[in-house]
Each structure stands twice: as structure tokens, then as C-alpha cells.
Specification:
This protein has 385 residues and is α/β, with parallel strands linked by helices. The protein is globular. It has an eight-stranded mixed sheet with strand order 10-11-9-8-5-7-6-12, sandwiched between helices. It is built from twelve helices and twelve strands.
Length: 385
């Protein structure tokens, strides 16, 4: 499993290369937030421009030497790349730079490892880390390709690399078995709610868009909310009673991000399945972010990957206090609610969002008289609006 980064004020150089395919400045701003979330200080940023990644060093030999000189001059501890590196590129860079090199995927995995609290969350993160590590075994760990033998070992013909692959494979199989068991439990709980006609709503959105703050504002819950990336990893669900619509199930989910590692999407599918089975998605958007349109597209990409692209959405334009925008409801030409502008932190516009939820729930045919007599999930709590 990928070792956690040192949380004691590790100082890092952040590297971003412009390949002409996106906004490098906003991407590096996001990397700064990721570094901060991992407990790392971004001491300096190094940028460059290339047409394509260098096969050996990703950045090319000249830029690699520039980075090495900056690391030595500033006595930095680590170099964070805002890109995905191959195992060979990471190893070559570490030899040249003389410090640890972490790519975007490994950084996000590390943050998830630090934040996972529940049993299921820890299993999912470990599975994602092992899946990522297995690619490093295949592509980069040639120094392990040596024969080993002796009493107590599998056999004189098995290399250390083959043993590592086998052990990782066995652990991955065990973790997937545990997640499948948890997934079956979730399916049973969902079926119970479906039989009772309970309208389910999942809150989705880009990381740090204010999903947990909105969840707390709607349910009066105490879910952890903070101004940091991936503050929420574990899905939290609460009952919500709205006059005219009856009982709803509202779920707060993990945030998405640009280039969310595929290993994480795969590992968290059991949790994200709750989103794919919802009746409505509240897609929370940071209205004050200059890259909000790109963030919406990134979230929709992940939703498509987990099979949730067909579920009706209401865009929740959050943080209007920071964006100096008024509370409002926007409808399309068919009079369907498409967007609600609110400030979950200040409470502005929340009555408009509740009214929108009531309208959609009633149109769906949900039974407003349904009152669940049994707890479908131990994490649920009876909370009013």
C-alpha cells in the first residue's frame, strides 16, 4: 500500500506542464489545495510547456535539471506532479532529483487514505492503492526481478516480483469479497426503501463545492464539513421530512475532481451505487469558482462512468454570497426546475431549494404519507427540515 505522506509540514515543489489542453493556472491552484489537504506546504511552483510527455522523465532532461536545482537550493522534501506518471518516469525522476516524487494519482490516493474513517471507506481506499501499486510492480520494479529461494519460501523458481504480485492479488481478491458483501447489504436496504415508496436524493458535485454544508443545512445533521478537498469520503444518509412531500432519504457523497483516479472510481463503486440508484441528484456547484463550468463537466463525466447520467438533476448554485448573486430558481422552457441559487452557509435561498424538492418529489408520485417504521441503515437519523 502506498505510504502516507509525512503530515509534519513537508515542503514541496509543485510541477505543472502545459500541453496545450487545459487551463494550467487553475489546475495548479487545485494542486496547491490537494497538497494542503495532504499536509504539504507548496513552497514553489515550476511550470513548463511541451508538445508531449518525455518517455523517460516526463518533463525532459533540461526541465528535470531545473527542478533538481530548485529542490536542492530550497531544501525541499518532495516534488508533486500535477500529472499521472508511469512507474519508470517516477523512478527516473527520483534518481535525478534525490527526493520523493508523487504524481497526481498517488497524491489523491494519499488524501483518501488519510480521510477514510469507516470500515468500508478504508477497504475501498486500500483496494484503490493496491490497484495503483500493481501497475508500479509491472512497469517499474525491475530491481525486484531476481530469483529467491530458501526454506519457507514458495519455491526457488519464483522471483520477488512474482511473489509481490501474488500477495497483492490475494489481498485485492479478499478486499473485493468484503466490498461485495457490503454492496449486497446496501442493495437490500435500497429495496426496502423502494418498497416503501421513499423518494431518494443524492448530493453530488465537485470536491469542496459545499455538499456537506448543504446536507447539514437541509437535515440539521452534524456531518463533517470543512474548507478542504475530500472532506467527505463516506456516504451519509438521513431522513428528511418536507411538508407535502413526506419522507425523503438524502445522501451526502464523496466529491469528484478532475482526473479522478480510475482506481478510486472502481473501488468506490459500491458507495457510488447509492448515487446511481437515486431518484434525483442535487448537483452542487461552487458559483464563485471561475472554473465552475469545467467542474460541472467533470462531475457529469464521472456520473456517466458509474451509470448515473440518466438521473434527473437540479443544479444547486452554491456560495452565492461569495459570488455576489441573488437567490433564485431557474426553469427551462418546459417549466422544469433546472437550477436553484443558494448559500448553504448563510441559509440564503434554502427555502427555494426545499420548495424545489417538494415539487419534484410530488411530481415523481412519491407517497407523502409514507413513514418508515424500521431503520433501513444504522447511520440514518430521524431529522426534520
Amino acid at each position: 500500500m502506498q505510504p502516507a505522506l509525512n503530515p509534519k509540514r513537508t515542503r514541496a515543489a509543485l510541477v505543472g506542464i502545459d500541453f496545450g489542453t487545459g487551463d494550467l493556472a487553475s489546475s495548479l491552484d487545485e494542486l496547491v489545495l490537494l497538497a494542503r489537504s495532504a499536509g504539504v506546504d507548496a513552497a514553489l511552483q515550476i511550470t513548463g510547456r511541451r508538445q508531449a510527455p518525455d518517455p523517460g522523465l516526463f518533463v525532459g532532461s533540461g526541465k528535470a535539471i531545473e527542478i533538481a536545482e530548485a529542490v536542492a537550493a530550497n531544501e525541499l522534501d518532495i516534488v508533486l506532479f500535477d500529472h499521472v506518471l508511469s512507474g519508470a518516469q517516477q523512478r527516473n525522476l527520483e534518481r535525478l532529483l534525490k527526493v520523493a516524487v508523487v504524481d497526481r494519482t498517488s497524491l489523491i490516493l494519499d488524501i483518501f487514505a488519510q480521510r477514510a474513517k469507516s470500515h468500508e471507506g478504508k477497504i475501498q481506499v486500500e483496494l484503490a492503492q493496491l490497484s495503483h501499486l500493481s501497475t508500479r510492480l509491472v512497469r517499474g520494479w525491475t530491481h525486484l526481478e531476481r530469483q529467491k529461494g530458501g526454506i519457507g519460501l514458495r519455491g526457488p523458481g519464483e522471483t520477488q516480483l512474482e511473489t509481490d504480485r501474488r500477495l497483492i492479488g490475494e489481498r485485492v481478491k479478499a478486499l473485493r469479497g468484503k466490498l461485495q458483501k457490503l454492496a449486497r447489504q446496501r442493495t437490500t436496504q435500497r429495496r426496502a426503501r423502494t418498497r416503501k415508496g421513499t423518494f431518494s436524493v443524492s448530493i453530488v458535485g465537485y470536491t469542496n463545492a459545499g455538499k456537506s454544508t448543504l446536507f447539514n443545512a437541509l437535515t440539521h445533521a452534524q456531518a463533517y464539513a470543512a474548507d478542504q478537498l475530500f472532506a467527505t469520503l463516506d456516504t451519509t444518509s438521513r431522513r428528511l421530512y418536507l411538508e407535502g412531500a413526506g419522507q425523503l432519504i438524502l445522501s451526502d457523497t464523496v466529491g469528484f475532481i478532475r482526473e479522478l483516479p480510475h482506481q478510486l472510481v472502481e473501488a468506490f463503486k459500491a458507495t457510488l451505487e447509492e448515487t446511481a440508484q437515486a431518484d434525483l441528484l442535487l448537483h452542487v456547484v461552487d458559483a464563485s469558482s471561475p472554473t465552475r463550468i469545467e467542474q460541472i463537466e467533470q462531475v457529469n463525466t464521472v456520473l456517466a462512468e458509474i451509470g448515473a447520467e440518466h438521473i434527473p438533476q437540479i443544479l444547486v448554485w452554491n456560495k452565492i454570497d461569495a459570488a455576489a448573486q441573488p437567490a433564485a430558481v431557474v426553469r427551462d422552457e418546459c417549466d422544469t426546475i433546472r437550477r436553484v441559487a443558494v448559500s448553504a452557509r448563510c441559509g440564503t435561498g434554502m427555502e427555494l431549494l426545499r420548495a424545489a424538492l417538494i415539487e419534484v418529489a410530488m411530481q415523481s408520485g412519491a407517497d407523502p404519507h409514507v413513514v418508515e417504521s424500521a431503520e433501513p441503515d444504522s447511520s440514518f437519523a430521524e431529522l426534520g427540515a
